Amino acid sequence: DDNDDDATETATSPATNPRVLCAGEVLFDCIAADAARGLPASELESTGLWTPYPGGAVANVATALAKLGTSSAFAGCVGSDDDGDALSDLLRETGVDTTLLRRAGVGGPPTRK
């Protein structure tokens, strides 16, 4: 419908005027290896028997849209640390507009529970 296109084109954003704005979470899903089976969560981190995978439903949608050729933007927050840098870089590298991505303040560890 032409009217829908006109409405989208008249909307403005600080950056590229994406077709879809995705607001929510981006995170690492940490998946334990089989060798870690039975270990309590308190011991798992120190063993290194887990692998971080970038995820978060909203970030996954923004990334999938960009890969399919639909301009998308992500609005959310990441930490001011190496993990935050990696997640931000990954979104940008896949073509997601990160103008509305914010950084959490420095000073505390990330949430892990």
How would you summarize the topology of this molecule?
Blueprint: H1 2-10, E1 20-23, E2 27-32, H2 41-47, E3 50-55, H3 57-67, E4 72-78, H4 82-93, E5 101-103
Parallel strand pairs: 1-4, 4-5
Antiparallel strand pairs: 2-3
Tell me what the structure shows.
By secondary structure, the chain is α/β, with parallel strands linked by helices. The protein has a single domain (about 1-105), classed as 3-Layer(aba) Sandwich (UDP-N-acetylmuramoyl-L-alanine:D-glutamate ligase), CATH 3.40.1190.30. It contains four helices and five strands. The chain has helices at about 1-10, 40-45, 55-65, 80-95, and strands at about 20-25, 25-30, 50-55, 70-80, 100-105. The termini are far apart.
| Structural domain count | 1
Distance separating the two termini: 45 Å
Number of helices: 4
Query: Low-confidence spans: pLDDT under 50, at least 5 residues?
Result: 1-14
* Shape, principal axes of CA atoms: elongated
CATH architecture: 3-Layer(aba) Sandwich
CATH topology heading: UDP-N-acetylmuramoyl-L-alanine:D-glutamate ligase
Question: What is the residue-averaged pLDDT?
Answer: 82
Encode the helix/strand succession as letters: HEEHEHEHE
SSE class: alpha/beta
**Helix amount:** 25-40%
Major sheet strand order? 1-4-5
- Let me know the number of strands: 5
Question: How much of the residues is beta strand, in percent?
Answer: 15-25%
Oligomer: single chain
CATH top level is Alpha Beta
CA-based gyration radius: 17 Å
The biggest sheet, with number of strands, parallel, antiparallel or mixed sense and barrel status, is: 3 strands, parallel
